[in-house]
Amino acid sequence: IEGFVYELVDGRKFKVKTEWYCALHHTKDSVNNNQRLFEVVVAGGADDVIAMFTGDDYAREKVNAFTIAHLDYLSNTLGLLLDAQKQLAGKDRREFAIKGQELCKPYPGLFSVLMNTYQRPQETEQTIAQINNVFLKNHKLYIPVDYRADAILPE
């Protein structure tokens, strides 16, 4: 059900949309909003969005491009963090931080994820969740080139 139309005693009318209808249109609208689209991708909802756009090649290609951008970022940063942990194992906190900053420099915000592993190694799932948070905070840096025209990139 899309929603309901109510009529007041004085003749005025108003509509109330169902949560389902609002969620559906919010999700469909995510293709027009780069940040929302990345949020859907990170949450694992790309397949659901693609299914909503049968016959819309532009939308499907955009969702796929954003999915690839996220997976590339995740693969690169997770690999970097795992390598850094091995490389820096046994270092004191100061040396760990100095070399860690250097290693994480290509990825803004990633250093904090590495530092979270200094004294207490984490499960990979925790690390991935933190990487995804950093990715979403910096999502404008990872918008695929073909879709940057409507994005405001940091200087």
| Radius of gyration, in angstroms, nearest whole number | 21 Å
Order of helices and strands: EEHHHHHHH
Helix share, percent: 55-70%
Mean pLDDT: 88
Characterize the largest beta sheet: strand count, sense, and whether it forms a barrel.
2 strands, antiparallel
Strand coverage percent? 5-15%
Q: Can you describe this structure?
A:
By secondary structure, this protein is mainly alpha-helical. It has helices spanning 19-29, 34-42, 46-52, 57-88, 93-104, 110-115, 124-137, and strands spanning 3-7, 13-17. The protein has 7 helices and 2 strands; from the N terminus they run ββααααααα. The protein has a two-stranded antiparallel sheet. A hairpin with a 5-residue loop joins strand 1 and strand 2. Helix 3 runs antiparallel to helix 4 (57-88) and helix 4 (57-88) runs antiparallel to helix 5. The radius of gyration is 21 Å and the shape is elongated.
Summarize the structure.
This protein is mainly α and 155 residues long.
Notable traits:
155 residues, mainly alpha, 7 helices, 2 strands, elongated
Describe the secondary structure blueprint for this structure:
Blueprint: E1 3-7, E2 13-17, H1 19-29, H2 34-42, H3 46-52, H4 57-88, H5 93-104, H6 110-115, H7 124-137
Antiparallel strand pairs: 1-2
